[in-house]
Amino acid sequence: MKKYILALSDEAMADIEDIYDYIAAEIQQPETASGYKINLIKEIQKLAVYAGSIAICQSEYIQSRYGPNARRINYKKMAIIYVVYENCAYIKGVIAGCSIR
To answer: Which of 18, 20, 45, 89 has a beta carbon 3.0–4.6 Å from 4's, enabling a disulfide?
Structure first.
């Protein structure tokens, strides 16, 4: 079984921290924020096994913002956007699914 190396962009790491900060500070639920962040990262880690099996996203918004080979998986209401280069899954961003046009 092929394994992919996972790499997170600075933008993706900032997106994850922004989500955590929003839940912890704005909604005032720090425990929920911690659990959400942990489970979001676990979902990203699963890509090590199946990143290449997800179809390239057909959304023009995703393609123009993240490149022509961008793929998407969902975690709750968030979209994890990544591209596959050989044996590496490069996480480019984590955005609200409702923001995708």
So the answer is: 89
d(CA 9, CA 92): 5
* DSSP string computed for 16-83: HHHHHHIIIIIS--HHHHHHHHHHHHHHHHTHHHHGGGSPBP--HHHHHHH-TT-EEEEETTEEEEEE
State the fold for domain 5-99: YaeB-like fold (3.30.2310)
Q: Which run of H or E residues covers position 10?
A: helix 10-21
**Do residues 78 and 37 make contact, with C-beta atoms less than 8 angstroms apart?**
no
pLDDT in tens, 56-98: 999 999 999 999 999 999 999 999 999 999 999 999 999 998 8
Residue spans of the domains in the chain: they are 5-99
- The DSSP letter of residue 87 is T
